[in-house]
Each structure stands twice: as C-alpha cells, then as structure tokens.
Amino acid sequence: MTIAIPSESARHTTGRDTMPLTLLLIFALPSLALAWLPVEDWETGNVTISGDGLECVCSVFLPDSAFPADRVQHMQQLTTDLTLEVEIQMNKILLYGGKLDVFLGELLDLTVRVALMESSPDNYIKLDFELLRVEITEFESLVSQLIDSLNTSSPTLDSLYSEIHNMTLIVNQLETYDKSNLEVIRIEFAKLQRKLKECQEDEDSFFKPDIGNCNHTGITAVSKPIVIQLNAHLNPGYKYGGWGKDSKPVRGFESMHWYGAYSTPSVYEFYLYSNYDKILQRSSFTHHGLPQGYEGTGNNYIVHGNTIYYQAANPLRMSKLNLTSSVFSHKQMTKASESFTYTHSPKQYLDFSADEKGLWVMYSTEEVKGNIEIAKIDEKSFGIESVWTTNAFKPLVGNAFMACGVMYATRPGGLKTEEIYYSYDTATKEEKYMSIPLQKFQEEFANLHYNPTDQKLYMYNNGYYMSYRVRFNKG
Fold it and tell me: Which of 159, 304, 388, 422 could lock onto 409 through a cystine, CB 3.0 to 4.6 A?
C-alpha cells in the first residue's frame, strides 16, 4: 500500500490542513479477538522524497490477508435477530406479569374461601366443594399455560403451583370431613328443592298463560314481582327508561329483549339483546344511538315489530325508528298536552303500549282536562285510527298499559305498593274500578307495559328490571 503525504511546503501552498504524518489504522471485528501484529513484523517499507521536496511518498506492505467482510455481515444479522428476540421475550414477560397479578388477586380470594371452609366445614354442601374444585383446576391450568408460554420456571411460579396443589388437597380433605353432617345437609337441601319446585308449579298453574287468547273478562291477579337485577349500566341513577321484549317479534328474533335508561327523562340510545340470558349478562348484540335532531324525551318507549316507538319534543310528536331499514318517521300530536304526566314519570306525555289487538298510544288533552285518552295507531300509515276518552285523571295515575284492548291504570298505594284500580274496554266502552295489588321494589317507577308474547308486565323500577305474571279471568 502506498500513502502520499503532502510536505509542509505543500500545505502552505494549498492553504488547507492535511492529515498528520502519523497514521492509525484500526480494523475491528465484532465478537472476534484479533491481536495486532507488532511493527517489527511488518514487511519492509521504503520512503521516497521527490526532487523538489514537495511530496513524501511512503510504501508500507501489510500481511497478505483478506478482510472477512462476509463474516462481519453475518455477525451483524445475528445481532439484529437476537435483539428482536429479546424484545419479543421482554414483551411476553410484561404481558404475563400483568396476568400473574390478576391471577394472584383471584387466588387470594380463593384462599380466603378455602380458609373459611376449613374453619367451618359443616356449613357447606357438596356443590360448594365442586365449585371450588373447578376454580382451583382452572387456576392450575392457567399457571401451567404461563410456565409453558415463558418456556421457563421461577421460584414464584413454582410456589404458586405448589399452593394451588395444596388447596386441592385441603378441599378434598374438607369434603370427606364429617360425612354424616354433609349427608344431612344434602337431604334437607333436596327437600327444599322439591318444595320450591312444587310452589313454582302451583304458581305456574295459577298464572298459566294462554298466549294470544282474549276470551276472558280481564285481569284478576298479578304475581309477586320478579326483581331481575340492576340495569346494564350498573347505575341506580339511571332511573328513567325501560326494558322488555319485542311485542311483535320478527322471525329469528322471537327472544330479543331491549333496554334503555338515562339519568334524565330523555331517549337518545338503547340496547338490544338476543335473549333473556344475554340481558342478564349485560351482553348486547347491538347498540343504537339516536342522531342529533331525532332524540326523544320522557320515560317511555317500546319495541314492536322490530321498530322502536318513542316520544319526541319541539313539537310534541310520535317517532319511530325501523331497526331493519334505519328509517325514521314522525307524526305530530297537535292535541296532546304537555301539561299532564304520570305521578312517577316526568315528561311522559305520550305513553306507547302494545297488546294482542295492536299498537296504542295514551295521552291527555286540554279539552278533556287531563283525563287519559286512548288512540289506536295504524302501523302502516303511522296515523290515528280511533280515539277513546277515559275518566282516569292522568296526574293521579302511576302508569297505564293496554292488554286485549283494555286500558288498565295504576295509582300509588304506598312506598312499596301500587294498585291497578281502573280499566277501560275500547271494544265495549265499559269502565271498571278494581283493586289489584302490585308490589314494587322501590317507590317510583318510570315504565310499565304489558307484552302479549308472554302475558307479562315489565316494569323499570328506579333502575331495576322487574316483571310480573298476569292472570286473566277465564269466566
């Protein structure tokens, strides 16, 4: 190799700095330990100076060995791959670390339950032990998956696995503890189950539904309330709204349930559930939000024929949304008054209801001085077919519903009691006064309507789902 170095005079001539006379040549190879050859092992070089003294030429002969560029490139690729693999494993550790925190929290609760059982095994039945055994088995499986995923083990995981195994042994021991007491408990529990079944059968025979049949003289009794659970928002502050079933379901959606609730008397979103179990699990299959300008007001809406019917304001009108086509329709109610609403439900001027005879809306006008009027709705034209005037004064009514063409009105009877006190038959124009108790979970409720597909009343009682079975007088 020959290196040309400008002389001092050349540097002054060009006016630029040049490299120093001493050169340091460094060759570095990653992960390879190379020993530098001592200077004395270099091959003999020579120095030549040009005649004019302007240039110094040095010739240096290095050992004859080719630079391993291919090996360097290979090592660089390996380094990149290893770095990526380390990042992947670190992310796995973070992910499983989070899961482990959750598992440890649940395991702590499980440990407490096992400790309680251990301290008083006589208070538990075989079902409790079976449930515990299932949960412990699930934890054991989760820890095994965690170890397999990490492809390693650790004192923490080993300790966790050992503790789960010990819990299994404890549960097995407790289950065999004092077999005689456990057998007595199981016998008593079986007796209780039989009595409960008998009571259920008696009530079912008393409230045996005859779906679609209106060959009777009206409602004679209502069952005790079935308090389902708190609403899907898990918030008792959402006390305005309602829940129920489609009163005229389309094919394939016979079990569909709906729910919508708000902290103020308004309507702007609602949820649909494929069946009863899904509404208990708070697992909706779709959610509808009403766009701006189409929001509703009040505390009442129903789903009928896969269409939601609700009240809108400014001006006061009936509104509906077809859940299949997503088409909105409106019908202004010019005579309906905004001066009269139900006792428990502010701003509920239009009250929709559906029964075996079709679709209805109840409201009041200034002309009848606050009494409830019943209007039959033509579902195709979304117009009013006929109107009937009742003697039920709306501000004193807790709520109202239609069943087989008869309007039933309730009134407050106390903190936990409502009374169905009045009925009006649209077929005969006959009105009756009665006294059918209706127990409530809490004092106020925002929505009460009848569903002809199961002959039940659905109530939205201060944020809680409730239902009642209805008994008709068959004559």
Answer: 422
